[in-house]
Write a structure and sequence with these properties.
This protein has helices at 101-105, 122-132, 171-177; strands at 9-11, 22-30, 35-37, 41-43, 48-58, 61-75, 82-96, 112-113, 118-120. The chain has 189 residues and is mainly beta. It has a domain at 9-132. The chain is elongated and about 90 Å long.
Length: 189
């Protein structure tokens, strides 16, 4: 896709290079590839990212502030139910003019750069959105998860659900006595 047709690339020429000029922009941009951890939590490919941005011309370049909002999908890390949610990230990024003091005094990855008076926001939004995804996605903060013995969802199991476990040291005795009507050793029938 050419840079002129890329919806992630924004033209800043109408701001000029005079400090103090600004332009608000609202745009919905489709996500080209899925972002995140597949089968855990991700922004799916083709998801629409809503951008609410303010471009401000400053002495050293263009300051971009605003928010990016996108849908997420995944599964709860406790009960494995599907999760559909939204992630919203705050953006604040300076894009330096070519030959500005900021561009000359900073490392290439410390500050963004204007290229032919254009800004590509995809890498910034992508990085911010991935960092905002929860490391342990939950359907609900109080999700009880799954029973470790049978794998049933605690929320669906009856109250008092449990599994009898016998201490291996007593297993032979229980096996020998079984369900004896005597009630165990030392008791008379």
């Amino acid at each position: 896709m050419s840079e002129q047709n890329n919806l992630w690339v924004f033209d800043t020429r109408e701001l000029g290079r005079r400090a103090g000029l600004s332009r608000a922009l609202h745009r919905i941009v489709p996500l080209g590839a899925a972002l995140g951890v597949p089968d855990v939590i991700e922004l799916p490919a083709g998801a629409e990212v809503e951008l609410d941005l303010l471009f401000e011309s400053v002495v050293e370049g263009v300051l971009v502030t605003g928010t990016a909002t996108a849908p997420t999908s995944g599964e709860c890390s406790r009960c494995l139910d599907p999760i559909d949610a939204t992630v919203e990230v705050e953006l604040t990024e300076l894009f330096a003019y070519p030959d500005s003091t900021t561009e000359a005094t900073t490392e290439e990855d410390e500050v963004g750069h204007l290229v032919d008076d254009r800004i590509d926001l995809e890498p910034i939004v992508r990085d911010a959105a991935v960092l905002a995804l929860p490391q342990v996605p939950l359907c609900d903060e109080d999700c009880p998860g799954l029973c470790p013995e049978c794998g049933g969802k605690w929320a669906d199991l009856e109250v008092g659900h449990g599994h009898e476990t016998i201490d291996p040291r007593w297993a032979a005795l229980v096996e020998r006595l079984g369900d004896s009507p005597a009630g165990g050793p030392g008791q008379k029938a």
